[in-house]
Amino acid sequence: MALVAFGALAAETAVRVVAWPAIAICTAGLLVSALASAFYYHFGAWGALDNAGKSDDELAAFVDSLRVSTEYVTCLVRFGRVFFGFGQLALAFALVQLGVTPVGVLGAVFGLAAMAVTMGLPDDLEYYAPIFHLNALWLAAIGLAALIG
What we know:
Blueprint: H1 2-9, H2 16-50, H3 56-69, H4 71-98, H5 101-120, H6 129-148
Helix pairs in contact: 1-2, 1-6, 2-4, 4-5, 5-6
């Protein structure tokens, strides 16, 4: 919602040239991440139902067999996070040009952090969790800045 609200506010300004593509990139990243999360949710629910009552050895064999089949979804998770971070970086430039400098600078820092953590530590997806929560607060800050401005 914050991205769409900002895009609507930027419609009559020169910033729209940067803001709209940035919003599109962020949205693509969010959609890909949502699809990957939905796959993991479905896969986890299916696995839990399918493995109810199995022995520890059977469960270990099942988990070992999953690693190859879920690798492409892990790639989708990374893709979504990097695209959102890149869109966030571009959107930060638009926010600074519009005069919302503190929110813009925070967006640039969070976007760079998202890309750095995702690309620098590709197998440690749990390190992204704080960035995810900071991004939610950042989007709320965009909404507040839009309401105030």
